[in-house]
Amino acid sequence: MKKVSILALSVALAVVSCKESKTDTATSTTEQTVAEHSEETFNVNTDNSMVKWTAYHKGGLNPRFGTTKTTGLLSVENGNLISGSLVSDINTLTTDASSVDPAITEGKTSSDLDTHLKSADFFDVAKYPSVKFDITKVEDLPAGTVSKVEGANKQVSGNLTIKDKTVNVTFPAKVDITADKINLVSKFTINRQDWGLAYGAEGDPKDWMISQEVDLELNIVANK
Predict the structure, then answer these.
(1) Global pTM?
(2) SS3 state of residue 23
(3) Cα–Cα distance measured from residue 25 to residue 104, given in angstroms and rounded to the nearest whole number
(4) Residue 80 lies in a domain
(5) Is it the case that residue 41 has pLDDT exceeding 70?
(6) Domain span at 68
(7) CA–CA distances in Å: residue 41 to residues 4, 37, 171, 176
(8) Signal sequence span per UniProt (predicted)?
(9) What is the pLDDT of residues 77-88, one digit of tens each?
(10) What is the per-residue pLDDT for 21?
């Protein structure tokens, strides 16, 4: 029986250690100089744009996901995206009810998770009501780069500010530009501890099984 138990534990740990990646991994560095806007700007269409987040327990288990509403603008020069600023209102953060099963969460619901995420344990919206992303550079996607975003054609870098910490992140994106519309699509993963969001990190007795990885999915539509 003891050998069987050890084997079962080994299998469980192997499963927990594996998470199929559906996103690109963002690279990070220190805060950089923000790119200046041109005269040609497009306003983010909040109703048609989506910022989706997904968080996991270790190994990709029990994913929780939801959205936030976003405002901002993007700037174009000679038909190319050169700068932009996106602001997500964390007060609008909503967890998808389908990602939380009260039967296995001791009765806790998606609304309970919303409240916890907005508390001082995570985003502390009373002090820091928004998350901001300021573009610092947009380049053509380097040749040979493999991205999880179909049709990715650009590499976007920007300062991501969460609470009082700013980190520059770089990720592939698909950017389509017409005379009156910009569509930016990206899927990338960040490490929340880079911004001091350390609740439930390994070694924390409150809940060490919460993964440090958070997936972000951007589908930004901006219009003239």
Answers:
(1) 0.87
(2) coil
(3) 30
(4) yes
(5) yes
(6) 21-223
(7) 64, 8, 22, 15
(8) none
(9) 999 999 999 999
(10) 74
